[in-house]
Amino acid sequence: MKRIFLYSLIALSLLAFNGCKEKYLNVFPEDRITSVSFWQDENDVKLALNGIYSMLRDHSIYGYGPGLDACTPNAYQWAYWEGYEQQIGDGSLTTATPGIVTGRWTACYGIISRVDYFLENIGKVKLDDEASKTYIGEAHFLRGVAYSLLAETYGGVPIVDSTLATGQARQVKRSTLEQTWGKAISDYDIAIGDLGVTAPEAGRATLGAALGMKMRAYLYQDKYPEVLKVIARIDSLGVYSLYPSYHGMFQVENEDNQGVLFDVQFIAGENGQGSIFDRYLQPQNLKYGISGSNSDAPTQNLVDAYEMIDGSKVDPAHPYKGRDPRLDFTILRPGAYFQGQLYPVEIKNHTGQRVGFGYRKYTIENMTVIPTQSPLNYIVLRYADVILSKAEALIETGQDIDEAISLINRIRTEREDVKITPLPPGLSQADARKALRHERRIEFALEGTYWPDIKRWNIGADIYPVEVRAADGSLIETKFPKGYQQRYNLLPIPESEISLNQNLKQNPGW
Q1: pTM of the prediction?
Q2: What confidence tens digit (pLDDT) does each residue in 249-263 have?
C-alpha cells in the first residue's frame, strides 16, 4: 500500500509553479495556475497533496536519512559531491558549501510554498467535511515538519503562511527561534485537531504522526514537561508499541508496523519512486549485479560504543563476540556475511574498504535491488523514540529517575533479538543522563538522529576531535581536529539567499 507516491510525478508536473530549481526567493512564484482543468475535483486535491509529500524524499530532507550520520562521529563520507554531510561532520564547512546547506533551506521552503498554495486553493473544490478536514490537517502537518527542520538547522527563519511574489520574498525578515518553533507547533496542533488515528492510505499523516512530531519539536527545545504531556496523548491512542524485533523493524516485509509513527514511503521502480539507500549505502555485489557506491561507512568510533551483552569488557582477540546484537543489525563488519558472502572478502564497498565497515541498516539482503530503486521506507519517528524521549524528560525534570531507567531497560531487554544487561536502579541524574544519551546513540545509530542530538545537547566540545582510521589503522582524517566549533550548532544561512535579501542576517560565527 504505497500508492501515495504513484501520483507524485504527475503532481510535480501539475505543481510546477512551485518548482525549486532556483533558490528560496523563487520558490514563491509570481505566476499562478490558470488551467481550468485543475482544482476541479478531489483527485486534483490528492495530486496537489502528493506533490507536497514527494518533497520529503528530497536529499536534504529525508531522502538521504541514514547518510546524515556522516554529520557526526558515527560515519565517514568520502563523496563530497553528494550532500556535503561530511564537511559538516569534520568541521570544514564554509558558507559557500553547497549540498545540504542550501538544499535543506530550499526544499523546506518548497514544502512551505506548496502548502500555502494548497491551503489557498482547496476551498475551490467541493469536498465532504471529513475529507476536507483530513487534507487540511495533512497540509499543516507537512508545513510543521518543514518549519521544525528549519528551526533545528538554521535557528529562527522567515515565517511565511501565504504565497508571495518574488519582490515580497526578497523583503522577508527572520523570525526568532522561539517564533519559528511556535509556528511548527501551531501547524502540528491544527493537524492534531484534524487527523484521524488511521490514514486513508499508507504513508499519509495520522494523529499519531502529528503528536509524535510535536513531541520531537518540544524535545528539541528542552521543553520536557510538554514532552511528557504529548507522550501521554500518544500512549492513550493505544495503537503504538515497541516492535518485537530490532532487525525486523527495518525489513521491507514488516513496513508500516505498530512501531512506526511517521515514515517516508518508497516503492521499487523508475522515475524516482525508490530510495537511494541501496545506491549509496549498500555494498557492491557483482555476483548479484548490485553496484552500490557506498559513499558513507560507519566508523570505529561508533563500533566501540556498542557494549558487551553481559557488561564485561571487549576481548581484543574476538572484538565482535558477545556484543550488543544491535551492532550486527546496524553495521556490516569484518567476518560478517551479507547476501551469503563474507565481508570484506567476497563482498566489498568502496568507502568501507578504507574505513573497514559498511551499512547494514537500511540495506536489503533478501532481494536484488536496482540502484536508486529500493522500496525500503525511511522511518522518521518510531515508538522507541517515544520511550526514550519520555525517559529523557523524566531525567531532565528530575521527576522519577528509576522510572526513566526502567524505560531505557525496555529498549535493552524487551525485544526478542535484543537482550543486554539492564541498567540498575538508583542512578544519579548525571549517570542516568549519560546512560540515556548512550542508549539513543546506539538505538538510532545510522538513522540520522544523532546530528540533532549532538546540537541540542550541546556536547560537540565533549566528543570531538574524533579520528577516523582506515582498516589498516592508518589515519584517514580527524573530525574537528582543533575541537568543536560552537557555530556548528546552526548551519549558515545560504549565501545565495543573503545576496538576494539583505534582511536575512547570517548566523553567529559564519
Answers
A1: 0.92
A2: 999 999 999 999 999
